[in-house]
């Protein structure tokens, strides 16, 4: 497994199947701001509502070869081996990334369990060995991660641009951030003393000498 975070903003993605597993995968794609089409003769209620609200496009039909044209990513959640195999073959011919939810050998990628807090994304995966453990760890860690780091991240992103403007080289910035993002600063962050933490980092940028 090689972890990558796909950037799917506005990209056309298709989920085949309209059951509860498809629903979870659709939600994850919408969170990633993809444009989602669902192909399935039947939808669970929540997906129907999403289709009525134009959050997704619904093609009410069984999958046919040719349906993948124009999509950049496919999730197959039909739970039926012959159809899954056909969809996998078609996706590979068209060189489109595919995930078949009940067959890891037919997956180019697997979905992790995730905690999203603003721009911060924390994921858990088990190489398909126990999705239940991924879920357990996600539930457990959700309590540890409220929005503290995400709020700090918004400020850090601005400070990072200031550091880029003031510190001449990438090496300088690497050295700078490894010492600037200290336990002392992060302790202030945990106490939500963002202004104080930001002040320390800004002073450090101003006084940095390579
Ligand atoms: C390979 C993978 C492919 C993929 O879907 O990408 C896959 C495959 C399969 N899942 C199955 C079952 C379950 N999946 C879950 C839950 C999740 N499954 C997710 C991901 C993945 N599941 C990928 C690997 C992830 C990893 O590496 O850990 C999560 C993390 C992400 C998400 O789906 O968004 C999400 C938790 C989200 C959350 O809550 O945070 C639960 C628990 C529950 O729902 O309570 C169960 C029942 C308990 C159990 O079996 O463990 C089955 C057997 C079906 C059967 O028995 O018929 C298969 C097929 C097989 O194993 O062959
Ligand atoms: N990866 C994961 O996270 C998990 C995977 N699974 C597996 O995922 C599969 C799907 O599970 P559910 O959503 O509960 O199943 P489901 O049976 O409720 O849903 C299947 C959906 O696919 C549609 N469908 C069937 N054939 C089709 C075709 N040829 N073209 C288009 N649509 C078609 C059906 O109308 C239905 O909406 C099962 O094999 C299940 O074991 C189960 C739990 C978690």
TrEMBL record:
Keywords: NAD, Oxidoreductase, Porphyrin biosynthesis. Its EC number is 1.3.1.76. It holds the Pfam family NAD_binding_7. One of its GO terms (molecular function) is ferrochelatase activity. This is precorrin-2 dehydrogenase. It is an enzyme of class 1 (oxidoreductase). Residues 149-204 form the Sirohaem synthase dimerisation domain. The gene is cysG_2. GO terms for biological process: siroheme biosynthetic process. Pathway: Porphyrin-containing compound metabolism; siroheme biosynthesis; sirohydrochlorin from precorrin-2: step 1/1. It catalyses: precorrin-2 + NAD(+) = sirohydrochlorin + NADH + 2 H(+). InterPro entries: Met8-like, NAD(P)-bd_dom_sf, SirC_C, Sirohaem_synthase_dimer_dom, Sirohaem_synthase_N.
